[in-house]
Design a protein that fits this description.
The chain contains 14 helices and 12 strands. The chain has about 450 residues and is an alpha/beta fold. The strands form 2 sheets. The protein has a 9-stranded mixed beta sheet. Strands 7-12-11 form a 3-stranded mixed beta sheet. A hairpin with a 5-residue loop joins strand 1 and strand 2. Helix 7 packs across helix 11 and helix 8 packs across helix 10.
């Protein structure tokens, strides 16, 4: 009997040791994308600066040719800039997955010819801290892996029964944490331009992506309203413009023919009106080209900040006053069509590789949102001020597409989610902040925010 007991104990111990070893092995084998689409490395290599380098972006595709080849399919990439190494950033990512990201995927599946891919864009850390950061990220990924087995008591199996649908695009794998994209370089506030350039390069290397929403992890996204206020609205606006131009041409032609006799002279120079199919085609092209939509927080446009106490301070020696005073979409959220983000990716790569050919402001520009606007401005693409992108001080009406929650994130996300899935948000203005300030008043919001303990003042 004792021999049998010892044999069972030894067997159990062996199986436990084997399982632990296998589990550690699986964690080591977790792989993520670094830099460009399809460049996959282990997460241990991706998390530390200098361990692995992303390849150079070599190929760009025609956005309209890609769209027509895919029979009008729309594929939206949501790139969420997030910190790699702090607990609050991890909490924001987890809550985003549980709320708006999950709902957006469900909404995309309900729409014909619409696909969604979400990537959390992370920078890297100092190799000396890589072990601690890797352990925290693996703990975060363990939660993702549990989502893939809701029937087995996985995370969210009861509260969010549709969590099994969290599979962004056909490429998602819970074990490999494929919703994380790493960019080369340190993960600091001043590195935001580099992370944004990395996201644009990744989107450009991703075949089939027609639109990119660049946002931050303190924002809440509603996909139907996003598409309605950017892609659909632009197509409808362009179609109305075509119709107005046609009416103008018809009016001029009628005036020109008033004094002419009937017959051949009346038909001379007649311009045939554009048929409905051609109008629809040109309007659809407008929805897939030239899109740069977001909220313009600063109506004066860009001016270098000279206050040394501001986190946005710019030294006059590095950033002269003669930089174009462009209007720009606030960095917490803007939508780009493929031609726009490919233009930025191509030009920024060219400027980085050939500094002598770059604009004078290029090296010193630490504001990623202004940097994007300036590059696109040089190529003739202007921002479209879109009020469905709601700032931190703005009210949240039923057309809200992207809400900047700022310091209220991620705690306010479950409330947003509940009002979204219940349909309440589609019917009325909802409460969308924890602060005591007048909705819509920047100064009232700033006064409240500046009084919060442990929060950097807005200057």
């Amino acid at each position: 009997m004792w021999l049998l007991f010892l044999a069972l104990l030894s067997c159990t111990s062996f199986l436990w040791t084997t399982w632990c070893f296998w589990n550690r092995h699986v964690k080591v084998q977790r792989r993520v994308e670094l830099g460009v689409r399809g460049h996959v490395v282990s997460i241990a290599d991706a998390v530390a600066v200098g361990n692995a380098a992303p390849p150079r972006l070599e190929r760009f595709s025609s956005p309209l040719a890609a769209r027509k080849r895919q029979e009008e399919e729309m594929h939206v990439l949501v790139g969420v800039l997030s910190g790699c190494c702090d607990a609050r950033s991890r909490a924001k990512r987890t809550m985003a997955r549980r709320t708006w990201a999950l709902r957006a995927l469900q909404d995309a599946r309900k729409r014909a010819k619409t696909r969604l891919t979400v990537r959390f864009v992370l920078g890297q850390t100092d190799p000396r801290l890589a072990g601690r950061v890797l352990s925290a990220l693996e703990s975060e990924l363990d939660q993702l892996q549990a989502w893939s087995r809701p029937g087995d008591g996985g995370l969210l199996s009861e509260a969010w029964p549709d969590a099994r649908g969290y599979a962004f695009g056909d490429s998602h794998d819970f074990a490999s944490a494929a919703d994380m994209l790493f960019t080369a370089g340190m993960d600091t506030y001043n590195d935001l331009p580099r992370k944004t350039k990395g996201l644009m390069a990744y989107a450009s290397s991703f075949d089939g992506i027609t639109h990119l929403l660049k946002t931050d992890d303190d924002c809440y996204v509603r996909l139907p309203q996003l598409l309605q206020s950017t892609v659909v609205a632009r197509a409808m606006s362009f179609r109305k413009q075509l119709e107005k131009e046609q009416e103008t041409k018809d009016g001029l032609e009628a005036e020109r023919n008033e004094g002419e006799t009937e017959g051949t002279h009346g038909e001379r120079g007649r311009v045939e009106p554009m048929d409905a199919k051609a109008k629809a085609e040109r309007a659809m092209d407008a929805a897939y080209e030239g899109v740069y939509a977001g909220f313009v927080e600063n109506p004066r446009g860009f001016w270098p900040v000279r206050d040394p106490d501001s986190k946005w301070y710019m030294d006059p020696a590095e950033m002269p006053d003669n930089v174009p005073h462009v209007h720009y979409a606030a960095g917490w959220g803007y939508m780009l069509s493929r031609d726009a983000f490919e233009t930025f990716a191509k030009d920024s790569q060219h400027y980085d590789e050939s500094p002598k050919l770059a604009p004078t402001w290029w090296k010193a520009m630490h504001w990623e949102d202004v940097m994007v606007a300036l590059v696109l401005y040089r190529r003739g693409i202007r921002v479209q001020n879109t009020l469905s992108f709601r700032p931190a001080w703005g009210a949240c009406g039923n057309t809200t597409a992207v809400k900047h929650a700022d310091v209220d994130a991620p705690d306010i996300f479950p409330g947003f989610y509940a009002q979204q899935v219940s349909g309440l948000w589609d019917k009325k203005v909802i409460q969308c902040n924890f602060g005591t300030f007048r909705p819509g008043s920047y100064m009232s919001w700033k006064e409240w925010r500046d009084g919060l303990e442990g929060v950097q003042r807005v200057r």
